[in-house]
Amino acid sequence: MRSDYKKLATFSLVAFVLAGCAIKSIAQSPQATPPPPTAPHSPVFPKPVEKNLANGLRVIVIPRTEMPLITAQLLIKSGGEVDPADLSGVSDMTASLLTRGTTTKSATQIAEAIEALGGTLNSGAGWDQSSINTNVVSARFEPALQILADVVRHPAFKDEEIERLRRQSLNGLRAALATPGTIARYVGARVVYGDSAYGHPLGGTPESLPRLKRADIANIHSTYYRPDNSILVIGGDITPANAFELAQKYLGDWENPPSALPKSQISTSESDAKSRRILVIDKPEAGQTAVLAVRSAINRNSPDFFRGIVANSVLNGYSGRLNWEIRVKRGLSYGAGSALDTRRWAGSFNASAQTKNESGAEVASLTLGEISRLATGDLLDSELTPRKASLLGGFARSMETTGGLVGQFASLALYGIPLDEINRFVANVQAIKPADVKSFAAAQLNADSTSVIVVGDARKFLPDLQKQFSNVQVISATDLDLNSASLKKTVSKN
Fold first, then answer.
1. Is 52 exposed, middle or buried (0-12, 13-18, 19+ CB in 10 A)?
2. What residue ranges define each of the domains in the chain, with the CATH number in brackets?
């Protein structure tokens, strides 16, 4: 027995040494980068089937029978964009209250009913839409859809639920506004969109949330929650015929209000050097500084969409240029990245990082430098290929679940894009060449007309920032007003 233990110990020691040698060999190998990705596949996704009900509700069904699951998403084609100027956050609150009680069921009863089905039910608003979603096993889909239809059509908007959600929202907002990154994002929206509807915080402000009344919430619901402003997307283990039958059963008698749907259009001026702002929000107690470069960009229906998302992918991600330059090479941040936010009326682009206060100006310079280099420097296929592979990998992962599948088709439907574009996504991304990225960056991401917001302890970075930029505007965090494009509280004269 002891001999066996000795043999085992000797074997383990040899294995450990060999493993160490292998690791050392790999570390010393000239292969400094991972092997290139394989050639992308062009999958064909389930073909959607659709029809319009007599009341105008568009129903889209995507059959996928591999797993006994179904996801349904009811989209209302109006979101934060329709908030009145002094009531920011009302659309988000309206959507969030849907699951908190109907005229016949309390919030607890709704939660217990959906839990008994082994499903989920959630709701909320984005900028261009409000939505209610349910996910459940296919055998229990009908009662789940019945619950979804009830909460959308008959919300109670009880005063106690409004007050509870208001307190929760205010507490979350106050906590978020204690962080430089959140402040920078909110300020960036005002810089890009000004006083237009996209400029306010989607979830409201500390000043607007207390103003919201039940009548304001009910008005959003009665005005925009209507079948001719809605899309129902059902995906999973269900036949189109069965899905249409259930949609008709629970939503077919949903009536439109007599008044026409209000028309809204949001615009933003083109970014140029004159509209550029270099803005500092001085927060002396901040332990770190947030840096945000932000500008107007393309909308979702732009013919430059695929050039745009590929260009953003070169900058974004762990191995993207921003993170590589700011984190990997210089150790100035735990992470840096970018986002191209394409919406219905006007999009935006931002690049962000968080750093120590003393390096705020340096990170701002590096961020703009990488944006500029994308338009003027070289971009080799050896760099572009893995960035496109990362983008395609994220797309593929999003399609693995019924929820992701429904979400992708719902987004196309929301923006009026042909549903079969989903089968061309891979080819459209692969078709983008280095010259396409460079031309997009030159036309749409001009660093010289990109605004910069820096939030942190200004004493530690302001002098260096002022050496780089002229006309740096400084606003104390205590004087910051997110309710207007001026961003500064006005002093009342008594």
1. exposed
2. 49-251 (3.30.830.10), 278-479 (3.30.830.10)
